[in-house]
Amino acid sequence: MTTTLAPATPPDAGAPPTRYRHIQQGLRERLAPYAYIAPFFVLFFIFGLFPLLFTFYVALFEWNPIGEHRYIGLTNFTELFQDPRFWGALRNTFSIWLLSTVPQLLLALGVAHLLNQVRLRAATFFRMAVLVPYVTSVAATTIVFAQLFDRDYGMLNWFLELLGFAHIDFTASVWGSHLMIATMVAWRWTGYNTLLYLASLQAVPRELYEAAAVDGAGSWQQFRHVSLPALRPIIVFTVVTSTIGGLQIFTEPLLVNPVGGLTCGAARQCQTLTLFLYEQGFGRFHFGYGAAIGVTLFALVVIIALINYLLITRIRWERP
Amino acid sequence: MAAAVAAALLASGCTPGSGGGGDDSGSSGSTFEFWSFTAINQKADVDAYMKKHPETRIKLTEVGSTSETAQALTAALAGGKVPDLVLIQGDDLPKFMQSPENFVDLNTLGADKMTGDYLDWVIKQPTTPDGKVIGIPTDVGGMAIAYRKDLFEAAGLPTDRAAVSKLWTTWDGFTEVGRKYVQATGKPFVDNTPTSVFFQAVNQGTERYYDSAQNLVYDRNPQVRAAFDLTLKVFAAGISAKQTSFSAGWTAGMGKGDFAVVSAPSWMLNSIRTNAPGTAGKWDIATIPGGSGNWGGSFLAIPKRAKNPEAAWKYIADMQSPAGQLDHFLMQGSLPTTPSVYTDPKLIGKTDPFFSGAPIGKIYTESVVNIKPFYIGLNDAAIGTELLNTLTSVEQGKVKPDRAWDTAMTNVKNALRG
C-alpha cells in the first residue's frame, strides 16, 4: 500500500489477451456480484428459509421433540381454528397492536417535526435522548412498567387514589392489560421511529421550508404541506415494520403478568399469538401445534403487509 | 405449577442447549457438566463435593427457572450438546418419562442398590413400568403454614406454634381463624386462596387428576372438586389479600405485613426469606390443616448421550445418599427423600432463626411420612395450572364463583387439546 497505488503490471501490459481469458474474465465479472451477496443469502437460507419451511413440515405432525413424530395432516389446523384460546390470542394481538402502533407513529411524527426545528437548542441531545428507551433492555422496561401499574403498590394507582378514584387492577382486566403492554411497546419504539422520520426530514431542502415561511405558512402548514409529502416513503416503511413487529409482540406479555406462567394472566387476557405459540411449543412441548400457530401467524402477517402496501401505495398515487 | 410460577420470576433465561457451550474441553476424566435451575443453590453442593474430591471438576450451569431448565434440556435432547447431569423438577418429570430412552437407566450404574433408601412413592415417579430408573430424588416439598407471630399477637390470636397448629387442624378451622383476624385488624389474613389453599388441599388427597389406573379423572374425582369448592368457600369468607403468589404485589405485601399467613411448602421458606428479609424473626411455622401433604421435589438424571456418565453417577451416589441429603438439609433446608434420616437428631434438632427457631426438620418430615401417594401423569402440570388460573380469575372478580367449576372444566379441556 505504501509503495504505489498503481498496479505493478497493468492488465493490458502482458501478452495479448486470448479468447479464453476474455471468457474467464467475463465470467468472473458476472459471478463476482453473486459472491459479494452470497454471505447474506447463505445465512438467510440456513437461519431464515430452512426453519420457515421446516415449520410448515412440522405443522403436519404430532411432534414430540424428544419422542415420536406422527403424521396427522391438517389436524393441527382444524384443531387450532376450533380452539377458543387461539381466537382469544388473535383478539389480544390485534388489540395490543392497534393500541400501540397508531399512537406510536403519530407521536413519532410530531416529535420528529419538533426535533427538526432549526431553532431547537441542544438538538443532538434531544435526538439521542429519544433513542434511550430503544436501547434499554425490554425485560428491565417491562418489570419497571409492571410495578408502575401494580394494583396495590403501583405509582399509577397511587395517583388515582390521590385524585379520589378507586384502584384499578390493570393486569387482571383485558383492556387494562392491553393498555399496559401497548404503553410499553409505544414507549420503546416511538424514539426509534422518530429518528427514522427525522432522518427523512433532514433530507428535505431547507429552502422549501424557507419558501413556505415566506409564503406565510405556519408550523402546522409547513408540516402538512412540506414535511408530510416528503415522509411518505418512510411512513410506508414504518407502518409495515411496526405491523410485523406488533403482530409478534412477545417479551412484554411474557414478563408483565407472570401469574399463570406463559398465559399472561389467569384468563389469558393478554396472551398474544407468539406467546401462545411459545406456550404450546416450549411450555407443553407440542411442537406440531406450535408450528401450526406459527404458520397461521405467518399467513396473517403476509396478508396484513399486503393490505398495508396496497393502502399506502394507493394514497401515494392519489396525491402525486 | 411451582415450575410455571418460578418461570415467571425470572426475566429471561439463556438456553445453553442449542448453542453448544463454547468450552472446548468437554467432559473427560473426572470433569462433567451439570445443569441445574436457579434459586435451589446447587452450587453449595457442587463446591462441597469438589472439596471432597479435588480431582473432580464440575461445570455447573444454572440455566434458569425450573421450566426453563426443562426446556433447555428438551432442546439439547432433541439434538444438541447434552449435559452429563441435569436436575429436573417433579412437575416436568412426566414429560421426560414419556421417552425414557433419552436417559441412562441408573440401575446399570448401581442405582438398584440405592432405590430402597428413598420414600417409595417418590422413587416410583422416575421408575418406568419395566423397572428402569431415570432419576434419583433430591428432595420433597413437605407442607406447612408460615404465619406472622407479631400480627397474630396484635389480632389477639395465640402465637405459640403448637397452639396455632391446634387452631386449624382442618381447613374450616383455618377459615375461622382468618375471620377472627380480619375482624380484629381489618386487614386480609392469607396472601391468596388459589395457591395457599387449593394447591395445598388438592395435594393432600389420595388421588389427584389421574386415578391409580392412570385414567384422567380430574373432572369427576370428588377430592379435586372438594379442594376447589373449599377454595371458593375460603375466598367467600373475605380473608384473602388476593395477591397472586410470586407477583410484585405479593412480594411487596409480604414485606409490609399486609397479610399474616402464607402456605409454605418447604421450598417456600427460602422465598419468604429472600422476598421479605426485613421480617426476620417475626415469622413462625405451624402444621398445615389436614396434617400432611407434598408439593414439589426434584430429580437428578443423566442423559443417554452424556460424555461422562460415570463421574455424574459418582456425584449422585455420594450427594444423594441418606447422609448426603441430610447434609444438604442442614446446609440448605430442602427436605431429604430418605426416611432413614428423619429420626436423626441433627434433623429433628434443626431450627430456623428466621422463623422464630421453628423446628423445620421435625415439622416438614412429619408432613410427608403420612402421605398417601397418588399417580402424577403427563398432563398434571397443565391441569393444575388451569384450575389455579380459574380460581385466580375468581379472586380478580373476572369469573363468578358459581360459574368457576364449569369455567375451569372448559379451560382444562382446551388445555388438553393441541
Which stretches of chain A are low in confidence, meaning pLDDT under 50 for 5 or more residues running? 6-10
- Please write the string of helix (H) and strand (E) elements of chain B: HHEHEHEHHEEHHHHHHEHEEHHHHHH
Strand elements of chain A, count: 2
What is the level 1 CATH name of the largest domain in chain A? Mainly Alpha
- Report the structural category of chain A: mainly alpha
The percentage of residues in β strands of chain B lies in 5-15%
Descriptive notes:
The complex is a heterodimer of chains A (about 325) and B (about 425). Chain A is an all-alpha fold. Chain A has 2 domains: about 40 residues, no CATH class; about 240 residues, MetI-like fold. Chain A contains 13 helices and 2 strands, in the order αββαααααααααααα. In chain A, strands 1-2 form a two-stranded antiparallel sheet. Chain A is flat. Chain A starts with 18 loop residues before the first helix and ends with a helix. The relative contact order of chain A is 0.12. About 0% of the residues of chain A have low confidence. In chain B, the strands form 2 sheets. Chain B has a 5-stranded mixed β-sheet with strand order 2-1-3-8-4. A 3-stranded antiparallel β-sheet of chain B has the order 6-5-7. The longest helix of chain B is centred in the C-terminal third of the chain and has 16 residues. The N terminus of chain B is likely disordered. In chain B, α10 packs across α18 and α11 runs parallel beside α18. Chain B has 19 helices and 8 strands. Chain B has 2 domains: about 200 residues, D-Maltodextrin-Binding Protein, domain 2 (3-Layer(aba) Sandwich), CATH 3.40.190.10; about 200 residues, D-Maltodextrin-Binding Protein, domain 2. Helices cover about 45% and strands about 10% of the residues of chain B. Chain B is globular, with a radius of gyration of 21 Å. With about 425 residues, chain B is α/β, with parallel strands linked by helices. Chains A and B meet through α2, α6, α11 and α12 of A and α1, α4, α12 and α18 of B.
